Amino acid sequence: xxxxGGTAGxxxxxxxxxxxxxxxxxxxxxxxxxxxxxxxxxxxxxxxxAFGAGHSSLAAQDLVYRxxxxxxxxxxxxxxxxxxxxxxxxxxxxxxxxDGLATAVLDSSPLRAGDLLVVxxxxxxxxxxxxxxxxARELGVKVIGVTSVAYATETTSRHSSxxxxxDHCDLVLDSKIAVGDAELxxxxxxxxxxxxxxxxxxxxxxxxxxxxxxxxxxxxxEPPLLRSGNVDGGLDWxxxxxxxxxxxxxxxx
Length: 253
Fold this sequence. Notes:
The chain has helices spanning 8-26, 28-43, 56-61, 90-95, 101-107, 127-138, 150-154, 197-218, 234-244, and strands at residues 48-52, 73-75, 116-120, 142-147, 171-174, 184-186, 189-193. The model has no long low-confidence stretch (mean pLDDT 95). The protein is built from nine helices and seven strands, in the order H-H-E-H-E-H-H-E-H-E-H-E-E-E-H-H. The protein is globular, with a radius of gyration of 19 Å.
């Protein structure tokens, strides 16, 4: 028996589908532009990086060393802020609010002018993503931000500049997620529940990467895609891609 719109599970899926349909219609031009910018970077010899803190890191990690994804996408990690494995888990949230941390990470990272960085932050209000984007651009790095623009009008910035992630990007992809990131309510439950930001953000970024791959092919460039290591020939294919592009792949070192 399937889920229907009358169940909590069915209502969540309906909400997620509605958000994805809205993104398809409202963000189509920006998704295309982001994919083209990534393709431009690949053709020009630049390197690709993705960053997200806490649960936003899930969408960043989904782009890295991914079957069907571009082999050139590297995870930019901030120690203690990548996921919920740090103890206590609340430390990761606290690190997002520390001024100066992003600058220290970027200045010791391999990023250089001509590269591209995807910065993912649902709220876009904390110091870490704001500074990550602003300092990356100071270094000559192109920045694609993925955030919910609604936070910029309904909350206040936690960065000393008073700005949000969206204010420091070459392109901004608006996830349309409502402030609070919970799609459902019930009279019997005192708090809203069922977050959709991971589903939506991952879908946005995979649509961008699909656009980039198609754009590269249109230019006569074979997209440096990885294949699943669980299909025959996949490992040999990946070895070839990684040898060819090894100078731009940092998760192998």
